[in-house]
Protein 1
Amino acid sequence: MSKKRFTVILCSLLVLFAAGILLWNLADGGLKRVENEYLTTLEGEWEGAKDFSEGLAAVQKDEKWGFIDTEGNLVVDAKYDGAFSFSQGLAAVRQSGRWGFIDKEGKTVIPFLYQSVQSFSEDRAVYQEGLYYGYIDKTGKKITDALYSEASPYREGIACVRQDSSYGFLDQDGNLLTEIVYGESSKASEGLVAVFSDAGTESLKTGFLDLTGKEVLAPTWYDTKDFSEGLCAVQDKAFTTPWGFIDQTGKKVIEGEWDAVESFSGGRAAVHDKNGYRFIDKTGAVVSQTYEKAYSFTESGFARVAKSAGTGWDFGFINQNGEETVSLKYDAARDFYNGAAAVANSGRWFFVNAQGTELCDGLWDDAGDFSAEGIARVRNGEEYGFVKLK
């Protein structure tokens, strides 16, 4: 056999071997499994899946939805046309074009009556009839009729609703807490809710109400974010005015210097100026170097940051001291939850821990955040599964 022919045969065998490895990796429904000292894979591959919530996750099989537990067991049969995640012990599910609610045993608690619904929040859920929305409680009793053009979930005992182009608030019993007169509003946070001045005025300003509907900070600012950790980002005038932070009395405690900001989380806030993003503490002191992308700290105590790298990005993570605990070397990344984060290189997703240890190879087309149960959703092609932290 000639040397040239031998080389051709060898190359062909190597190609076939590589193809075999690829097919093996995509076997078992196309979803790659992992079993090592850090991670284990739950049994089952699914046509669709949602994140775990309250110990269960919605999964799709044969175009129907059911629920699995944290071991991967199907505990609510896949028989629904649609499903939301569990919230306050109930999950919204759809049959024959109508929505109702089930408990964790799969028992129907609220019949399939509604055109659409939202998940329960503070024992109340939004439902839709025709073009309008109202609220029900966890027994299915109507708290309000479907009267509103828009209805938001309850938060801190109140809910924001819209009629025509104006907003107002309801109390826990569905009674009007304020008149429906505001130009816009946000969600309640730390006992306060931001509202624009009366709809129809020429120059809208933002102020704050307390949870009784009483105005406690007069409309003063052009724009605001929600209160977080006792502080709220505010912008005094439109667009070009820098952002600063006020306390709950309305006192400016950090003077405006930035053209964009995020709310405080973990004692740090991401702020942006012409040089890029940095993090500040509650005194306004800069506690990190400059990045071209920066995201809020999560409960795990880490923030996602990035610098440009050619036509893409190098992502990594910093701690609250501004130290880079996970090197900036990933093409994409999601946030840290439960001590681990999904990252990607060359289109393949995997996980790292807070020390920067890679917990597995790049196995998946996509990977999500770890839930409170320590379980993350993964996907290859059209097949979904779950991996669990050990």
Protein 2
Amino acid sequence: MNRKFERQYKLALRREVLGQLHNTFLHYAVPIFFLFVFVDYYLTGAFSPFFIGRGIITLVSIGLILVSKIKRNVIARLYNVIPCLLFFSYNAFICLSMYYFPEKLKMYFAGLIVVSSGMTAVFVNVDRQIFVASIGTLVAYGLVLFLHFDFYQENYTFLIISSSFLITSCIVNIIGSRSVAVVRKKGFQDKYKLRYERIRRDQIIRSKAKELASTELLNSQFSPQISKMFKEGTLNTEEFESDIISVLVIDVVDSTKKLYELESKSAYVAIERTFDIIANTLLEYDITVDKFTGDGVMALSNAPVKYENHLEKCFQACIEINARIEENNIILSAHWGGPMQLRYSIHTGEAIYGFIGRGRVKSFTALGKSVNLAHRINGHAPINGLIVSSDSIVDKEFFIKKLDLQEVDSTKVLCKGFEKMIEVSSFSFLSNKNNIRKVNNEIICECGNELILKASKHGKYELVCESCNHNTDDIKKAA
């Protein structure tokens, strides 16, 4: 138990004691103590001294208890005063009464002191304070006997009986309160240890949940290698950086029209599967998934980890995504009402990037003119083709030969927000890694048997070969 909870434990224990004292004292001790004024009057014939004395002690006692209940910041101080002060004042008043009426009521007051001492143990249960109150009571009683020694020495029987009863009562009260205090403290220790463990467990759960949320955020945007670097602290997550990056934008063709015409569930399945293909492919090439825009994806290469071939990675990712979409188009078409078609655009330029957002909601993104330009030129890209700003490509022929691209056009386009015409190059993809063949309108696996559309255990539709148990993912991996 740390210091904070140790302090809370002690404060709660004191509140419990004062709370118990408040309830039992006001409900039982005060009425009993005050009602004895009538007994005093009956036995002595004096009313005012007992009424005033008991009344003053009662009002002071109630005032102290109410102060401790209302102003909690004085609990620690009053805890060490109130119980001892209250019950010692009661016993002291009884001893004072015994001093003024020694002859008539010596047995009555002696018995009353024993009863009052017993009530101290019942209502307080704080061993140290009971010890102090008991010693004070014995001193007060002894002082009365000393001041009236001439009177009490003639009655040794009363002196021995009353003293022995009072001393025995004090000893029993001290021992009993000690035992009760030990049990009570142990109960409070167990209670607050349990509370501390529960709070500590909740803190661990929140910490783990936060760590899990952070991990899921990293894994959804970055490749496993980059996520690991973030977790190890080798990459900066607090400040924005500025550098040359390649911004890749992928947009679904005619998505607005399709979403208007199709049922929401069918459109969701098609878009979800498409974005799943795109995101997984991008992460395989260490390209950061910036955001999903509803019908498109924005990604960053060369941020946050630097690569000399960051533009080439974007080209390779586009080619791979196009091939995988073609592999899955039989399934996608069933939900999309036709083949899924995409437009790809890339622009390389300077931008600032980093984590943006406050508190728990943060996302890695890039800002700047280069990001805007990559989005603007996307609308000019051919369907299932790629458009790249000419400033991004240093050696166009190298990319065409190495990546099996075919240049479709090289022109200038006017983009919203840019005064000058932007020179761009458009490409189509020559290679197709699709190993699914279509014969007489039947979809055929490599083994020569027909592929059948079935739902997987994850709720996604896949083309499955019942002969060799291959599915579209197996065929893709084999390719």
Protein 3
Amino acid sequence: MQNEKKPAVLVIDDDTLILESMILTMAARYTVSTAESSDSAMEKIKVQAFDAILLDVKMPESNGVEHLKKIKEAVKEVPVIMFSGVSDIAQVIDCIKSGAFSYVVKGRDLKELYEAIDIAIMSSKPEPKKNTQNTSKSENATCIIGKSSQATMAFEVARDIAPARDISILITGETGVGKEVLSRYIHEHSGSKNSPFIAINCGAIPESLIESELFGHEAGAFTDAHQKRIGKFEAANGGTIFLDEISTMPIHLQVKLLRVLQEKKIERIGSCKSIPIDVRLIAATNTNIETEISEGKFRQDLYYRIRGIEIQLPALRDRSEDFELFLTNFVTYHTNKYQLPTKKISKSLINLLKMAPWKGNIRELYQFAEVLVFLLKKETEITIQNFPKQCLTRLLMDYSMLKKNDISVQKAIMRRTIDAFQGNITATAQFFNVDRSTIYRLLGDEIPADSP
């Protein structure tokens, strides 16, 4: 355990004393970097990968929401935790609605800060891939077809087309809907299921490295190329290569990819030798490629080449009949993984969670279930009454949505939210976009008269 790499955390605050304090108190648990301004933070984000970011709500050159948006544009997968004084709670709520993972209050117990960071990192990390090049059946817990007509049709088309290895497939859909899961499903139902399956996120690889990643290089091909490297296409020979976020691929590489797909040959960087390959391509995108083409960002000829058949996966909000199936399966999966007591989820909580936005779709729900199981280790039933306050910001619903539930559910979730905001009725009202009087009408004498 001592050799485990510590998570990298960037702390952004204009107060140098706070930054120095953070370094001293967090160094044993995290690798801490600091920035005193938005510009300094953005420079560090460009050159270093972080597991989590702590952002002060009040920065001299911009407010928290503006800075948060810049950060999420640059590193959308990295969780951002806001930290501020209690007086800033209204702005913190705005930040959460703008993409912040959670918030912590300055000066509170370090345990609360560490818990917020650890939960954010756990929730945002991708599920570990077991034997990416292994062709045995995937153990991915998210491989659930469900009952919704759109998802069922997508998997039926995938299964029908799977044996036709010469037909390229383009999978479309929002982030987190299960595009890689579907690509593995296709591979496992094809004639090459015992050959390699290699997945690559084109958007996660720096532009300067992606050509080498895909096609390999010879020793001495460029600075730091000290030895020969086999590219992903060559490694996937005989099997399937999955190119996620293909729309982010640089134009000059799109030309080379098109040639590889047409000629079924690759050339490593620094070599003139052509190497024959037999690879089934499955590509995926969460953008509208036709719009990218009209803007000159994607080649039309490559689009037609990778779009032998297009399969669109629906968002989680469009398959509400599958929500309970996904949630209960994920809770069971994580319960078994951590060897914890079997857990049942109350129907009222499932119905409430179903109303949440889930902008990260199935992937977000999967990670949320892991946090839920982890925080309620000893519980055998997960209900609204014991729902962790750290997870309340995931709901992000207004009161009109909450009112669709039974009055007992409304009261229970309102109590948990007030508790999460340390008894602050004004902050709770802002969270639900209602007046304080609405909460008083709902809970009546349960609320102390002197509540803030």
Protein 4
Amino acid sequence: MKQKSNRVVVISVVLLSVVCIFAISVFAIYNKNGSGNKFYNNVIINGIDVGGMNISEASNVLETDFKANRDKLKISLKYMDKKWEYSYKDFEPIDDFSLEVGKVFNSISSNNMFERFLKKKQLNQNDGKIDISYRKLLGGFDKKLDIISDEIYTELIEPRVEFVPNEKNPFNYIEGQSEVVVDRQKLEELIDDAFKDNKNISITIPTVTTKPSITIDSLKSKTKLRSQFSTSYANSNGDRKSNIKTALSSFNGLVVFPEEEISFNQTTGARTKQNGYKPANIILNGVYVEGTGGGVCQASTTMYNAVLLANLEILEVNKHSMPAAYVPLGLDAMVSEGVSDLKFKNTTDEPIYIKTWCDKTCAYVQIYGLPFENGEYYKTRSEFVKSLPHSGDRVLQDTDGKYSNKVTFKGEYLRLKYPHEGYEANVYLEHYTKNGELIDESLIRHEVYLPQEGIIIEGTEDLYDGINLPKNDVKFISPQTTSQTNGNNVSGIINGKNAEKYNP
């Protein structure tokens, strides 16, 4: 049993020795000259056998061959209707071929026996053939490719919208362009492959095209009419109309980006003569008085209602002390520098575009942007709740003589303003389907316009003997006890008392 085991061991050792000798022999064959400074036998570079040569010898042979055949080099590169043609004379001579030859030598040799074996095996699979591209033997070739790449390069430009609010069609759509970049890696591969078989080559330059991420159609889909609103100022005087036009012109062409907030006062600027505003009636302490910029509140109210119908977020809005005749109760937007503002925010995912204009009778605001889904739309509804009775007239003595040119004596009266009943109103924003079916509604405002007392000024001096009071047409109005006002006639009553020409 022991002798049998010894016999197995001996056989195993002999077999292992044979395998090692065979492996060493194979490595020796594959690595012949590979560990020195000479090329393996049967190595062929650019069709020339450089086997057994060192780098310097191989470089000299290759350079001699290159110079003998360089007149045959013709290069034609094409892209669309452009063409670039070169001969060897268009390139710079290289001083030393040994640099490229050395790179080849290093790529197939190694001091490591096993690595050398693998490289030699791969080389044999290619029949020992190696190519150095003429691209690398022509000085400045890459620079010429750089120039060509720059000439072909086309910048990526996205399509864009040009907002021209004063045109009938307020949008121009400007076409973009694709980015075109030379596929440099592929181009070099094509050149190198072509040079393997021919010295007169013609290459169509490969490019990579990147199209814009958006289209004109998508831009058009984001610039639809979202809402519009108008108010009449047909009976206003020229200065008041001018102020409305001036205020709204500050918004004409305004583009509001997502989440951007807009202030009416900041957009219009100060209501001064320098900014184009003229004297017109404003409300001060419940009385219509002349002030610079009268009528601007009609501009802000027109804007406010358009913003509501566009379903944008209202950040600030305030009513007047008295109802405005140009909109239903609760839908006015009073603005006054440092006191009251109209503010709103674009809560859509795309920009909104504001167009405003005025004609002889009306002021208009249109808002464009993303359309509502499925043709849905919004409306506002003003609900009259009740009237609030006024307290009649109050008599004030002209103690400071402010009205002495109109009233002097006791019993002599001047009416400054009439008493007006007040109103309570609710305002709803209604959401409708394309077919006019109500989806939902929400209460957006509850407003109370306090009743206004009448103001009568009386003179302060006693009558002189022999002087009679002049005839006085001022009639005193008692506190209101009943009201005939209702939801059907409230608008007409307000229009009668607050004529357009007096509205702020």
